[in-house]
Amino acid sequence: MPQPTDQLYTIPASYRRMENMHILFWLLKDIGWCMLWKPLGLSMIAPTLIIALIITWRTRDIKAELAHNLAIVLWISANSYWMVSEFIGFDTVRVWGNVTGKHLALLPFFAGLLVLLYYYLVQKPRENRAEPVATL
What is the DSSP letter of 100? Predict the structure, then answer.
């Protein structure tokens, strides 16, 4: 049960509809990838990524939301790159040593992880220290 000091996070209905549409596009993209339906998978990259960027921009003033939504943008980027590498056939091509085209998707995956690590190890502790102490 929420405590009286808990802050409420609310979003406008139009934002929620956009988030729901984002989930639909993301699922269609991954279904296209899973089923090797290249036109579906490739055509869903742009709407999925654009909506993720819009959501990230709209929540930029809430540091926790910004960090998580930025990580999602990077995740979708990595995921989309990986899908494209498989569809085009350079996923197994060696680009450097044992690193293949598919492994390059790790760059945005790790970038998203770094964003979240920064949030949880640096930003969130700062926010917790800055919270006012209740006085009687």
Answer: E
Write out the residue range of the structural domain in which residue 61 sits: 13-128
Asked if residue 5 is part of any domain, the answer here is: no
8 A C-beta contact, residue 47 and residue 80: no
Residue 85 located in a structural domain: yes
Judged against a pLDDT cut of 60, whether residue 1 lies above it is answered with no
- Which pLDDT tens digit goes with each residue over 95-135? 999 999 999 999 999 999 999 999 999 999 998 887 665 55
Measure the CA–CA gap between 133 and 129, rounded to whole angstroms.
9
Q: 53 lies in a domain?
A: yes
State the number of CA atoms in the 13 A half-sphere of 62 facing the CB.
13
24-63 pLDDT, tens digit each: 999 999 999 999 999 999 999 999 999 999 999 999 999 9
Return the half-sphere exposure (C-beta side, CA atoms, 13 A cut-off) of residue 116. 12
Question: Beta strands 99-100 and 94-96: pairing type?
Answer: antiparallel
Q: What's the sign of the alpha-carbon dihedral 89, 95, 100, 101?
A: negative
